[in-house]
Amino acid sequence: MASSSVNLEEIPSESLMNELLRRMKCAPKPEKRLILIGPPGSGKGTQSAIIKDEHCLCHLAAGDMLRAAVSAKTPLGIKAKEAMDKGELVSDDLVVGIIDEAMKKPSCKKGFILDGFPRTVAQAQKLDEMLERQGVKIDKVLDFAIDDAVLEERISGRWIHPASGRSYHTKFAPPRVPGVDDVTGEPLIQRKDDSAAVLKSRLESFHRQTQPVINYYSKKGIVATLHAEKPLTDVTDEVRKVLS
C-alpha cells in the first residue's frame, strides 16, 4: 500500500481535488450504457463529448481502443496485432474482449458510450452476450438519422487550412476570399475523404452494414431516432430528453 500513497503525493493537489469533485458529482448519477450510430458528419462525435460529461460515462471508440490495446501490448492487443500484420480483420471476439477490458476502468464505473461498434448484427449479438455475463445490458441506442443529401452538403463544402487545421465551409462558414485562409492568405485544400465520391461510397457501406444493427436493437425497443440534420443545440436537447 505504501507505494500507492507515494504516487498520490506526486499528484498535484489541483488534480486530486478535480478528481474528487468529479467523483462526488458522478456518484448519484444512474448507470447508462449507450451505443451511438450515425454516418460520418452526423454530429455523433460532438454529442458524445457532451453526453460523456453530463452523465459521467467513458467514451469507447472501437478504433482507439484497438490501437491502445496494441500499443499497451495487452494479451488481446498482441493477438489483434498479429491479425493486422497478416492483413486480416480483427475478429469480433477479440474486439468484444478489448471492450470488456476497457469497461473495467474506473472512468467507466457509471457506464459507457460505444462508438464505431457494433457494425454488424453478429457483433451486436456478441456484445449482448458479453454484457449479459456481467449482468448488464445496453440501455439506449441513439440513431443519428440524417439525409444523405444534407451530409453531402455538410461534408463536400468543407475546406481546410492544412498548417493550422482551421476549417471553413463554402455555405456555413465561408472564408472572406474563396479558397484562401483568412489569417495567412494561404490556399485552402479539400481532404480526400471530404469529396462527394468518397462520401457516397462510405455512406453506401454504412447503410448496408448498419441498418440491420438498428433493426436488431429496434426489436428490443431501445432505439431513439434523433433528427441529426437540426442545429447542434437542438440535437443536444433531443439527446437530453431521450436520456432523462
TrEMBL record:
Domain Adenylate kinase active site lid: 158-193
InterPro entries noted in UniProt: Adenyl_kin_sub, Adenylat/UMP-CMP_kin, Adenylat_kinase_CS, Adenylate_kinase_lid-dom, P-loop_NTPase
Record field: catalytic activity: AMP + ATP = 2 ADP
First-tier enzyme category under EC: transferase
Domain of life: Eukaryota
Record EC number: 2.7.4.3
Sorted UniProt keywords: Kinase, Nucleotide-binding, Transferase
Molecular function GO labels: kinase activity
The keyword RNA-binding appears for this protein: no
HAMAP family recorded: Adenylate_kinase_Adk
Assembly behavior: Monomer.
Recorded family membership: Belongs to the adenylate kinase family.
Name under which the protein is recorded: adenylate kinase
Native source species: Gossypium hirsutum (Upland cotton)
Species classification: Eukaryota, Viridiplantae, Streptophyta, Embryophyta, Tracheophyta
